[in-house]
Specification:
- The protein is an all-alpha fold.
- It has one domain (1-128).
- Helix content is 70%, strand content 0%.
- It is built from five helices and no strands.
């Protein structure tokens, strides 16, 4: 029952994050859809860590280069997702208000992705790896 509540909470967080992203694009005073390119970063961000979890045995207590590379790549993707709207605003492709809404959406979405991995990332009977 706790996992269902966590899943509902994470779904709500994802919906709120996407709402901020869409508000930054579709409000009449902004009306520019360039910030939707951050959707690619939302899709790409969990991929390196998922691949590393498949390749790495978690019984090793020492630091693992494959897992650290995956975390490094994921960090680069997340930083790029925050940098892209700022670059768009500096280039005057979008307004700064739209940039703030997109950055708020990025924060909520990436917190939701992190929460998903924290809740469903363990190797128990109900794990995201089974999906």
């Amino acid at each position: 029952c706790a996992l269902v509540a966590a899943l509902i909470t994470l779904s709500f967080g994802g919906a709120v994050g996407l709402m901020f992203l869409m508000l930054g694009c579709a409000l009449p005073q902004y009306n520019q859809y360039w910030p939707l390119f951050v959707l690619f970063f939302y899709i790409l961000s969990p991929i390196p860590y998922c691949i590393a979890r498949r390749l790495v045995d978690d019984t090793d207590a020492t630091s693992n280069a494959c897992k650290e590379l995956a975390i490094f790549l994921t960090t680069g993707i997340v930083v790029s997702a925050f940098g892209l709207p700022i670059v768009f605003a500096r280039a005057e492709l979008i307004y700064w208000g739209a940039c703030a809404l997109v950055l708020t959406g990025n924060t909520v979405i990436f917190a939701t992705i992190l929460g998903f991995f924290l809740v469903f990332g363990s190797n128990d009977d109900f794990s995201w790896q089974q999906w």
